Automatic annotation (TrEMBL):
InterPro entries cross-referenced by the UniProt entry: C-type_lectin-like/link_sf (IPR016186), CTDL_fold (IPR016187)
Top-rank taxon, per record: Eukaryota
Protein name per its UniProtKB record: Ladderlectin-like isoform X1
Classification lineage: Eukaryota, Metazoa, Chordata, Craniata, Vertebrata
Keywords: Signal
Length: 95
């Protein structure tokens, strides 16, 4: 009897419950809305800026000190970003 109980409990724990049709439709609607908002924000990046991870980035190809770069970013309504790898740099700025 204990074996049957353990097997039933294991089966219940390992079986994924299917969402109710209304819940699934609501989640699909929410995902579509989030996708639409993300795509809309992409078009709000100013010309010459890159869209990455739901944010706009702008690469300024001239040497500056950190303070100069920060002031430059602030003058454009932004702030400096951190780039942690060459791969991330290429993804963000597509150079």
């Amino acid at each position: 009897m204990l074996t049957v109980c353990v097997l039933v409990c294991a089966m219940m724990a390992l079986t994924r419950a299917e969402a109710l049709p209304e819940e699934k439709a609501e989640k699909d609607d929410q995902a579509a809305e989030i996708d639409l908002v993300a795509r809309t924000f992409q078009f709000w990046c100013p010309r010459g800026w890159s869209w990455f991870n739901r944010r706009c980035f702008h690469f300024v190809p001239r040497p500056m000190t950190w303070a100069q770069a920060e002031r430059n970013c602030r003058s454009m309504g932004g702030s400096l970003t951190s780039v942690h790898s060459v791969q991330e740099y290429h993804i963000r700025f597509r150079s």
